[in-house]
């Protein structure tokens, strides 16, 4: 990969990490409530019965209220577990208390499903650092989701969950990057045109 693309990724990751750390509690709470409303709207509109989502770290867009709604509405949610080989496994969201996993991120307890179980989801809601207007997603650099998406056939519609200002005009795209269908932010739902570039 070109050196300038690497530098740009590092720059965006650092800027997003800093902005996420800077939000105060009240701003985070407002964003969390707005985000969950968008996620509920998207899943309801799509009629999705089985989805993937994630348990957030402190600064990430927080889908917790949406996860509680999903439990109440019989929407099955697969949550990620980070494996040592940088593949994901999944376990179902439940009322059981999550436990800290490999990166200190909370992970669901219960029976594990393989990475490819995500192919049976109607919709995937995945964490990201940033996304661009053509659907290129930037993660945190360990390739968990790139590896997972590459192994899915079919790939369900995939939405990156980010803050509004994390939708950028253009990010570097690598050959292994699987473009996302859209993005969900506290401010709305965006679908990206499918195009090659
Ligand atoms: N809530 C949540 N769960 C998730 C993800 C996520 O982004 N958010 N993941 C999405 O992939 C996977 C975990 N991915 C991770 C990616 C990077 C680091 C991390 O600590 N990165 C360090 C650099 C580490 C290194 O380069 O070795 C850092 O950002 O400082 C942790 C987990 C699965 N679960
Ligand atoms: N399909 C794949 N198979 C094997 N390795 C992969 C695959 N996709 C990405 N990788 C590797 O994962 C590493 C991280 O890639 P990249 O920087 O694009 O990740 P990212 O988009 O930030 O991560 P994530 O998917 O975890 O959000 C790179 O070393 C890349 O080569």
UniProtKB/TrEMBL annotation:
Lineage: superkingdom: Bacteria
Record-linked InterPro entries: FTHF_cligase, FTHF_cligase-like_sf, NagB/RpiA_transferase-like
Catalytic activity, reaction form: (6S)-5-formyl-5,6,7,8-tetrahydrofolate + ATP = (6R)-5,10-methenyltetrahydrofolate + ADP + phosphate
Enzyme class: ligase
This protein's UniProt keywords: ATP-binding, Ligase, Magnesium, Metal-binding, Nucleotide-binding
Cofactor: Mg(2+)
Gene Ontology terms for molecular function: 5-formyltetrahydrofolate cyclo-ligase activity
Keyword Cytoplasm: no
E.C. designation(s): 6.3.3.2
One of the Pfam families matching this protein, by short name: 5-FTHF_cyc-lig
PANTHER family for this protein: 5-FORMYLTETRAHYDROFOLATE CYCLO-LIGASE, ATPASE INHIBITOR/5-FORMYLTETRAHYDROFOLATE CYCLO-LIGASE
Family: Belongs to the 5-formyltetrahydrofolate cyclo-ligase family.
Protein name, UniProt field: 5-formyltetrahydrofolate cyclo-ligase
Organism annotation: Leucobacter chromiireducens subsp. solipictus
